[in-house]
Amino acid sequence: MRKKVLGRGLEALISQDLKDSIAETERVREIELGEIDPNPHQPRDHFDDRHLDELAESIKKNGVLQPVVVRRAGDRYQLIVGERRLRASGIAGKNTIPAIVRNVDDDDALKLALLENLQREDLNPIEEARGYIALRQRTGLSDKEIAAILGKNRSTVANTIRLLNLPAEVVGLIEEGRLRAGHARAILSVDGEKEQIAWARKVVEDGFTVRDIELAVKPEKKKRRRKKSASRDPVLAEFEERLETVLGTRVRILPRKKGGLITIEFFSDDDLESILERIGVDITL
Residues with catalytic annotation? Predict the structure, then answer.
């Protein structure tokens, strides 16, 4: 279990050294594009060419309205925040770009890049999910704490992360913008990778709606539950249902010749913490 992070909001993420450097170096200067190297930890996987061209046209007319953020890397600079602006400036034929130079370490550089990207409106859901995972791993924050920092609901963060559990083909369709997040979340309720891929193709090729998926999945789930309960000990089935009500997640009791096994599903660190708290486990480490 991760160490608890004290404090709220962005203040809990950024080191004092970074806060001091921001206060000291918040001055915009023009830097040659050729002197700036890309961020090796850039959390974005895809940059839409059409959007870059549109931004480049805007830069030609109005210039770069918001400076990029860089740090020193030897005798060059390394980009922290603003890769779209940097790329679009090159497309627009600019030689320099307004920039703020900050003295930050690798850890704070990645945190800044992640936070800046997670607050963009043009992230696809898979980039967003990977950003949450990276931020969680780097900071030790829970889904609930990340949601509070970004002004989102905890369930929004947790459900977005769950999209990474889909098959690679389905994830690819989401990244390409051919499958919306709402459809993808509905497909998560479908059992089996082959069936999930089949439904994703139906959405893309035949225009199936979220409601179509939900209506098709519900009867099948009821049928499987009836079939399973018919062959199972009704007492154990009742205990499973009671545990699921208490814990808020799927529970299975698997009896053996001697003893048995109880499985409790969770989808994120935050889900695990919630379950442990409900059964009275102290999660403070």
Answer: 83
